[in-house]
Amino acid sequence: MLNLDELVAIDMHTHAEVSEKGGASLSAELDAAAGAYFKAEHRHPTLPEIAAYYRERRMACVVFTVDAESATGTPPVPNEEIAEAALANPDVIIPFAGVDPYKGKAAVRQIRRLVEEFGVKGFKFHPNIQAFHPNDRMAYPLYEAIEEAGAIAVFHTGQTGIGAGAPGGGGIRLKYSNPMDVDDVAADFPGMRIVLAHPSFPWQDEALAVATHKPQVYIDLSGWSPKYFPPQLVRYANSLLKDKVLFGSDFPLLAPDRWLADFAELPIKDEVRPKILKENAARLLGITGN
Asked: Is residue 78 within 8 Å of 84, Cβ to Cβ?
Protein backbone atom coordinates (compact mmCIF):
# COMPACT_ATOMS: atom_id res chain seq x y z
CA MET A 1 0.00 0.00 0.00
CA LEU A 2 0.99 3.64 -0.36
CA ASN A 3 3.06 4.95 2.52
CA LEU A 4 2.12 8.63 2.52
CA ASP A 5 4.74 9.54 5.10
CA GLU A 6 7.51 8.15 2.90
CA LEU A 7 6.36 9.84 -0.31
CA VAL A 8 8.04 13.00 -1.58
CA ALA A 9 5.13 13.84 -3.89
CA ILE A 10 2.04 12.52 -5.64
CA ASP A 11 2.00 13.05 -9.41
CA MET A 12 -1.67 13.43 -10.39
CA HIS A 13 -1.14 13.19 -14.14
CA THR A 14 0.73 10.28 -15.72
CA HIS A 15 -0.07 8.59 -19.04
CA ALA A 16 0.09 4.93 -19.97
CA GLU A 17 0.75 5.34 -23.67
CA VAL A 18 1.63 1.77 -24.64
CA SER A 19 0.39 -1.69 -23.76
CA GLU A 20 2.80 -4.49 -23.01
CA LYS A 21 0.82 -6.41 -25.61
CA GLY A 22 1.90 -3.93 -28.28
CA GLY A 23 -0.99 -1.46 -28.56
CA ALA A 24 -0.75 2.33 -28.30
CA SER A 25 -3.40 4.95 -27.53
CA LEU A 26 -2.40 7.42 -30.26
CA SER A 27 -2.01 7.07 -33.99
CA ALA A 28 1.54 7.28 -35.33
CA GLU A 29 0.91 10.83 -36.62
CA LEU A 30 -0.45 12.17 -33.33
CA ASP A 31 2.18 10.34 -31.31
CA ALA A 32 5.02 11.80 -33.39
CA ALA A 33 3.56 15.31 -33.15
CA ALA A 34 3.26 15.07 -29.35
CA GLY A 35 6.83 13.83 -29.02
CA ALA A 36 8.14 16.69 -31.13
CA TYR A 37 6.07 19.30 -29.29
CA PHE A 38 7.26 18.24 -25.84
CA LYS A 39 10.77 17.25 -26.97
CA ALA A 40 10.27 14.12 -24.87
CA GLU A 41 13.11 11.60 -24.79
CA HIS A 42 11.67 8.37 -23.35
CA ARG A 43 8.20 8.42 -24.85
CA HIS A 44 6.88 4.92 -24.38
CA PRO A 45 7.63 3.41 -20.95
CA THR A 46 5.71 0.28 -20.05
CA LEU A 47 3.68 0.17 -16.86
CA PRO A 48 6.39 -1.75 -14.94
CA GLU A 49 8.90 0.87 -16.11
CA ILE A 50 6.60 3.66 -14.89
CA ALA A 51 6.35 1.94 -11.50
CA ALA A 52 10.13 1.59 -11.23
CA TYR A 53 10.69 5.19 -12.33
CA TYR A 54 8.41 6.62 -9.62
CA ARG A 55 9.55 4.18 -6.94
CA GLU A 56 13.14 5.34 -7.49
CA ARG A 57 11.97 8.93 -6.87
CA ARG A 58 9.82 8.05 -3.83
CA MET A 59 6.73 9.36 -5.58
CA ALA A 60 3.28 7.93 -6.25
CA CYS A 61 1.58 8.50 -9.58
CA VAL A 62 -1.97 8.54 -10.91
CA VAL A 63 -1.88 6.59 -14.18
CA PHE A 64 -4.51 6.54 -16.92
CA THR A 65 -5.08 6.13 -20.61
CA VAL A 66 -7.37 8.08 -22.96
CA ASP A 67 -10.12 6.18 -24.75
CA ALA A 68 -10.88 8.12 -27.93
CA GLU A 69 -11.57 5.09 -30.09
CA SER A 70 -14.87 6.42 -31.47
CA ALA A 71 -13.22 9.64 -32.70
CA THR A 72 -9.84 8.29 -33.82
CA GLY A 73 -10.36 4.61 -34.53
CA THR A 74 -7.40 3.76 -32.30
CA PRO A 75 -8.17 1.48 -29.30
CA PRO A 76 -6.71 2.62 -25.97
CA VAL A 77 -4.28 0.91 -23.67
CA PRO A 78 -6.64 -1.41 -21.73
CA ASN A 79 -7.85 0.08 -18.47
CA GLU A 80 -7.61 -3.36 -16.93
CA GLU A 81 -3.89 -3.49 -17.70
CA ILE A 82 -3.36 -0.27 -15.75
CA ALA A 83 -5.50 -1.50 -12.86
CA GLU A 84 -3.57 -4.79 -12.74
CA ALA A 85 -0.28 -2.87 -12.73
CA ALA A 86 -1.59 -0.89 -9.76
CA LEU A 87 -2.43 -4.10 -7.94
CA ALA A 88 1.12 -5.32 -8.63
CA ASN A 89 2.67 -1.99 -7.58
CA PRO A 90 0.37 -0.61 -4.87
CA ASP A 91 3.19 1.41 -3.33
CA VAL A 92 3.43 3.73 -6.35
CA ILE A 93 0.60 3.40 -8.90
CA ILE A 94 -2.88 4.85 -8.31
CA PRO A 95 -5.25 3.54 -11.00
CA PHE A 96 -7.45 5.87 -13.03
CA ALA A 97 -9.07 4.97 -16.37
CA GLY A 98 -10.12 6.43 -19.69
CA VAL A 99 -13.69 6.08 -20.98
CA ASP A 100 -15.14 7.06 -24.35
CA PRO A 101 -18.32 9.18 -23.99
CA TYR A 102 -19.54 7.98 -27.40
CA LYS A 103 -19.74 4.41 -26.08
CA GLY A 104 -22.81 5.27 -24.01
CA LYS A 105 -24.23 2.47 -21.89
CA ALA A 106 -21.17 0.31 -22.49
CA ALA A 107 -19.01 3.07 -21.00
CA VAL A 108 -21.34 3.35 -17.99
CA ARG A 109 -21.01 -0.40 -17.39
CA GLN A 110 -17.27 -0.10 -17.78
CA ILE A 111 -17.08 2.65 -15.14
CA ARG A 112 -19.02 0.61 -12.61
CA ARG A 113 -17.01 -2.55 -13.27
CA LEU A 114 -13.64 -0.80 -13.07
CA VAL A 115 -14.51 0.78 -9.72
CA GLU A 116 -16.13 -2.31 -8.21
CA GLU A 117 -13.75 -4.98 -9.48
CA PHE A 118 -10.45 -3.12 -9.84
CA GLY A 119 -10.63 -0.24 -7.37
CA VAL A 120 -10.18 2.44 -10.04
CA LYS A 121 -10.37 5.87 -8.36
CA GLY A 122 -11.03 8.21 -11.27
CA PHE A 123 -11.65 8.70 -14.98
CA LYS A 124 -9.85 10.85 -17.55
CA PHE A 125 -11.59 12.71 -20.36
CA HIS A 126 -9.71 14.44 -23.18
CA PRO A 127 -12.39 16.46 -24.99
CA ASN A 128 -10.05 17.52 -27.82
CA ILE A 129 -9.08 14.00 -28.83
CA GLN A 130 -12.50 12.55 -28.00
CA ALA A 131 -14.21 15.35 -29.98
CA PHE A 132 -16.95 16.26 -27.51
CA HIS A 133 -17.96 19.16 -25.30
CA PRO A 134 -17.90 18.07 -21.65
CA ASN A 135 -21.36 19.56 -21.12
CA ASP A 136 -22.84 17.49 -23.96
CA ARG A 137 -25.77 15.63 -22.42
CA MET A 138 -24.66 12.38 -24.05
CA ALA A 139 -21.87 12.21 -21.43
CA TYR A 140 -24.15 12.79 -18.44
CA PRO A 141 -24.91 9.09 -17.80
CA LEU A 142 -21.14 8.57 -17.44
CA TYR A 143 -20.89 11.39 -14.92
CA GLU A 144 -23.85 9.95 -13.02
CA ALA A 145 -22.00 6.64 -12.72
CA ILE A 146 -18.77 8.36 -11.65
CA GLU A 147 -20.60 10.44 -9.04
CA GLU A 148 -22.48 7.41 -7.70
CA ALA A 149 -19.20 5.49 -7.42
CA GLY A 150 -17.53 8.32 -5.49
CA ALA A 151 -14.83 8.54 -8.16
CA ILE A 152 -13.05 11.56 -9.65
CA ALA A 153 -13.40 13.03 -13.15
CA VAL A 154 -10.34 14.59 -14.81
CA PHE A 155 -10.83 16.84 -17.84
CA HIS A 156 -8.08 18.03 -20.14
CA THR A 157 -8.42 21.80 -20.49
CA GLY A 158 -6.72 24.35 -22.73
CA GLN A 159 -4.44 23.87 -25.69
CA THR A 160 -3.08 20.38 -26.29
CA GLY A 161 0.28 19.19 -27.54
CA ILE A 162 -1.50 16.28 -29.21
CA GLY A 163 -1.54 17.10 -32.92
CA ALA A 164 0.43 20.34 -32.44
CA GLY A 165 2.50 21.03 -35.53
CA ALA A 166 0.84 18.35 -37.64
CA PRO A 167 -1.11 19.51 -40.73
CA GLY A 168 -4.39 20.96 -39.45
CA GLY A 169 -3.33 20.05 -35.94
CA GLY A 170 -3.97 16.41 -36.80
CA GLY A 171 -7.67 17.27 -37.00
CA ILE A 172 -7.75 18.02 -33.25
CA ARG A 173 -10.03 20.97 -32.41
CA LEU A 174 -9.22 23.19 -29.45
CA LYS A 175 -12.78 24.46 -28.92
CA TYR A 176 -13.71 21.39 -26.85
CA SER A 177 -11.35 22.17 -23.97
CA ASN A 178 -12.72 25.45 -22.60
CA PRO A 179 -13.09 24.95 -18.82
CA MET A 180 -16.40 26.84 -18.90
CA ASP A 181 -17.91 23.67 -20.41
CA VAL A 182 -16.82 21.85 -17.26
CA ASP A 183 -18.48 24.54 -15.13
CA ASP A 184 -21.83 23.21 -16.37
CA VAL A 185 -20.79 19.69 -15.35
CA ALA A 186 -19.71 20.89 -11.90
CA ALA A 187 -23.05 22.65 -11.42
CA ASP A 188 -25.06 19.62 -12.51
CA PHE A 189 -22.98 17.06 -10.55
CA PRO A 190 -22.08 18.78 -7.28
CA GLY A 191 -21.14 15.46 -5.68
CA MET A 192 -18.54 14.58 -8.33
CA ARG A 193 -14.99 15.74 -7.64
CA ILE A 194 -13.42 17.27 -10.74
CA VAL A 195 -9.86 18.06 -11.76
CA LEU A 196 -9.18 20.62 -14.48
CA ALA A 197 -5.97 19.31 -15.99
CA HIS A 198 -3.20 21.72 -16.97
CA PRO A 199 -2.83 25.47 -17.03
CA SER A 200 -5.81 26.16 -19.30
CA PHE A 201 -4.27 28.43 -21.95
CA PRO A 202 -5.93 30.45 -23.44
CA TRP A 203 -8.64 30.14 -20.77
CA GLN A 204 -6.60 30.40 -17.58
CA ASP A 205 -8.86 32.98 -15.97
CA GLU A 206 -11.92 30.86 -16.73
CA ALA A 207 -10.33 27.86 -15.00
CA LEU A 208 -9.46 29.93 -11.93
CA ALA A 209 -13.03 31.24 -11.81
CA VAL A 210 -14.52 27.75 -11.99
CA ALA A 211 -12.18 26.37 -9.31
CA THR A 212 -12.86 29.25 -6.91
CA HIS A 213 -16.64 29.09 -7.50
CA LYS A 214 -17.22 25.32 -7.41
CA PRO A 215 -15.95 23.71 -4.18
CA GLN A 216 -15.40 20.26 -5.74
CA VAL A 217 -13.21 21.52 -8.61
CA TYR A 218 -9.40 21.26 -8.43
CA ILE A 219 -6.62 22.23 -10.87
CA ASP A 220 -3.61 20.10 -11.72
CA LEU A 221 -0.46 21.81 -12.96
CA SER A 222 0.66 19.21 -15.49
CA GLY A 223 1.82 19.63 -19.04
CA TRP A 224 3.71 22.89 -18.54
CA SER A 225 7.06 23.66 -17.00
CA PRO A 226 6.28 25.83 -13.96
CA LYS A 227 8.54 28.57 -15.31
CA TYR A 228 5.87 29.20 -17.96
CA PHE A 229 2.90 29.38 -15.56
CA PRO A 230 0.77 32.52 -15.99
CA PRO A 231 1.28 34.96 -13.08
CA GLN A 232 -2.36 34.77 -12.01
CA LEU A 233 -2.12 30.98 -11.67
CA VAL A 234 0.84 31.33 -9.32
CA ARG A 235 -0.98 34.04 -7.36
CA TYR A 236 -4.12 31.91 -6.89
CA ALA A 237 -2.07 28.80 -6.05
CA ASN A 238 -0.47 30.83 -3.26
CA SER A 239 -3.78 32.09 -1.90
CA LEU A 240 -7.41 31.29 -2.77
CA LEU A 241 -6.63 27.91 -4.32
CA LYS A 242 -3.78 26.79 -2.08
CA ASP A 243 -5.83 23.74 -0.98
CA LYS A 244 -7.04 22.85 -4.50
CA VAL A 245 -3.94 22.95 -6.71
CA LEU A 246 -2.17 19.67 -7.49
CA PHE A 247 1.25 18.62 -8.73
CA GLY A 248 1.09 16.80 -12.05
CA SER A 249 3.82 16.28 -14.61
CA ASP A 250 2.26 14.76 -17.78
CA PHE A 251 4.88 12.00 -17.81
CA PRO A 252 6.24 10.69 -20.14
CA LEU A 253 5.65 13.88 -22.14
CA LEU A 254 7.08 16.02 -19.35
CA ALA A 255 9.36 14.45 -16.75
CA PRO A 256 8.66 15.11 -13.06
CA ASP A 257 12.37 15.83 -12.50
CA ARG A 258 12.21 18.84 -14.80
CA TRP A 259 8.85 19.98 -13.40
CA LEU A 260 10.07 19.84 -9.80
CA ALA A 261 13.32 21.64 -10.61
CA ASP A 262 11.41 24.51 -12.21
CA PHE A 263 8.78 24.49 -9.45
CA ALA A 264 11.55 25.06 -6.91
CA GLU A 265 12.24 28.41 -8.57
CA LEU A 266 8.63 29.65 -8.33
CA PRO A 267 7.72 32.19 -5.62
CA ILE A 268 5.48 29.71 -3.79
CA LYS A 269 5.08 30.13 -0.02
CA ASP A 270 6.89 27.54 2.08
CA GLU A 271 3.65 26.44 3.74
CA VAL A 272 1.95 25.99 0.35
CA ARG A 273 4.61 23.85 -1.36
CA PRO A 274 3.79 20.60 0.52
CA LYS A 275 0.10 21.14 -0.15
CA ILE A 276 0.68 21.30 -3.90
CA LEU A 277 3.21 18.47 -4.01
CA LYS A 278 1.38 15.94 -1.85
CA GLU A 279 -1.14 17.00 0.76
CA ASN A 280 -3.92 18.26 -1.53
CA ALA A 281 -3.72 15.11 -3.67
CA ALA A 282 -3.71 12.84 -0.63
CA ARG A 283 -6.88 14.50 0.66
CA LEU A 284 -8.57 14.33 -2.75
CA LEU A 285 -7.66 10.66 -3.16
CA GLY A 286 -8.52 9.72 0.42
CA ILE A 287 -4.96 8.62 1.27
CA THR A 288 -3.99 8.85 4.92
CA GLY A 289 -0.62 8.70 6.64
CA ASN A 290 0.69 5.65 8.47
From this structure: no
